[in-house]
Amino acid sequence: MAVADQLDQIHIGPRVRALREAMDLSLRDLAERSGVSAPMLSQVERGETSPTLAVASRIAAGLELRLSQLLRLDEESSVSVVRCAERRRGGGAAGHAFEILTPPLPGQRAELSRHVLAPGAATGGEGDPPMHEPGSREIAVVETGTVTLAIDGSRHELFAGDTVTFDADLAHRFENPGPGEAVLLAVVSAGLRRS
Amino acid sequence: MAVADQLDQIHIGPRVRALREAMDLSLRDLAERSGVSAPMLSQVERGETSPTLAVASRIAAGLELRLSQLLRLDEESSVSVVRCAERRRGGGAAGHAFEILTPPLPGQRAELSRHVLAPGAATGGEGDPPMHEPGSREIAVVETGTVTLAIDGSRHELFAGDTVTFDADLAHRFENPGPGEAVLLAVVSAGLRRS
DNA sequence: AGGGCGCGTACGTTATCACGTACAAGTGTC
DNA sequence: GACACTTGTACGTGATAACGTACGCGCCCT
Predict the structure, then answer these.
(1) Within a domain: residue A195?
(2) Does B160 have pLDDT greater than 70?
(3) C-alpha to C-alpha distance for B61 and B74, rounded to whole angstroms
(4) Radius of gyration of chain B (CA)
(5) pLDDT class for A45, splitting at 50, 70, 90?
(6) Is the C-beta of residue B124 closer than 7 Å to nucleic acid chain C?
């Protein structure tokens, strides 16, 4: 077996076990949820076998994830998560001002922030890495103005009053094409916590 | 084999073939690049077999992609937009109007809603049972006016711009003592455990 | 202490993956 | 037209995934 294969198996196995335990499930519980047998799950977690895509998808579903998300939990390990200390208040890029409305406390299940973009401004630079941990989801509401969400190779034009929900662990940014100022509220739900 | 499994296989196969042809490679060319045999690649592309993660990773690498990227090319877009006109609206008690800004989809990690309380109105009646599942947390931001949060035997007065976070599975309600109208945004994050 | 239960893993069996070989069909060159 | 080459797929075989059954271990209750 090639090294790359071993790396593949090693990564998904411990991750599946960590997620399963975080959800307080036994092997038999997850077997019931996913449709994959408990002994098979045990082998996968211990890295003894490489499941097929069909089985891996079912395991991911049992953990309330898509398979690409499950894989991403290990692949994106080089992405750093930037926390409140750097983005508490003030400006990001030129023309971008934000405030974080929720306290930096352990009990926060989601983070709420308000962003103001001057015409032509954006929340980040082209090609910036994702700023949130794997598994995070984000909701954004456009209060005033128009913004464009650029994410994962696609662009979505949003008008005042529109709401968008997306995977916050994919590289993304909001741009204000103008002409007026744009205000949006963002809610980021925590990703799947690691052990 | 379940339909979901079939959908999984159907998706990656045509995608692999499309990418291979776009790169002007034959099955034998890709076999050489990926380390997976040409007959196997043919079977995968035709949906005749579900490759293991180890093999699928090698196929993705031969196409200059990570496996999560290959999978994401077929997954439904994780971005969900709710237009201003699509908000779900309702009225609670007299003087209380609300709109739900997020879609009623499984991928929603949190629900975002906007509430308008006329002077003297409240979001619920005295002693109403909690409306959220155990473990839920809620964040509320007062946009305009003044509201009082009554929860667990205590009362908290909130002014425009204030944010409050609390356990949403405790009986609670927001009251508008007036004199003006009060507007607040609420974010409810799902509980910790699901049955 | 004993019994029952939950949990994770060993093991045997079956199904399927993954490969190597070979065939059929199409294309290009002489 | 004949030949060589490329390409995709059929088929047989070995390896391994995937399952069902059962065991060992630890914990809890009586």
Answers:
(1) no
(2) yes
(3) 17
(4) 26
(5) very high
(6) no
Q: What is the pLDDT of residues B116-152, one digit of tens each?
A: 999 988 887 765 655 666 556 788 888 888 888 887 6
Same domain, A96 and A173: yes
| CA separation, residue A111 to residues A108, B140, B168, B172 (Å) | 7, 11, 16, 21
B168 chain-A contacts, CB cut-off 8 A:
none
Mutation for testing the A interface, residue in B6, B71, B166, B185 having most A CBs under 10 Å: B71
Phi, psi torsion values for B190, nearest 5 degrees: -55, 155
> Is B195 contained in some domain?
no
Q: Is the C-beta of residue A46 closer than 7 Å to nucleic acid chain C?
A: yes
Report the CATH number that the domain containing residue B52 is assigned in CATH. 1.10.260.40
Indicate yes or no: strand C within 7 A of the C-beta of B79.
no
Task: Name the pLDDT band for A80 (thresholds 50, 70, 90).
Answer: very low
Checking ipTM against 0.90, whether it exceeds it is no
Contacts of B137 in chain A (CB under 8 A): 107-110
Q: Are residues A90 and A185 located together in one domain of the fold?
A: yes
Q: Which of B11, B39, B72 is the C-terminal boundary of a domain?
A: B72
Question: Distance between CA A61 and CA A32 in Å, rounded?
Answer: 11
Domain-located, residue B107: yes
Asked if residue B39 has pLDDT above 90, the reply is yes
Quick check: B154 CB within 7 A of strand D?
no
Cβ contact, residue pair B56, A58, below 8 Å: no
- Residue A172's alpha-carbon distances to A131, A147, B64, B173, in angstroms, are 9, 13, 22, 36
Residue A78's pLDDT is: 28
Chain B nearest-CA distance from A130, in A, is 15
- Residues A116, A58, single domain; the answer is no
Q: Which domain holds residue B10?
A: 3-72
Tell whether B44 is covered by a domain: yes
Q: Global pTM? A: 0.59
The number of domains in chain A is 2
Beta bridge partners of B80: A165
Query: Residue A2: pLDDT band by 50, 70, 90 thresholds?
Result: very low
Minimum Cα–Cα distance from B13: chain A residue: A53
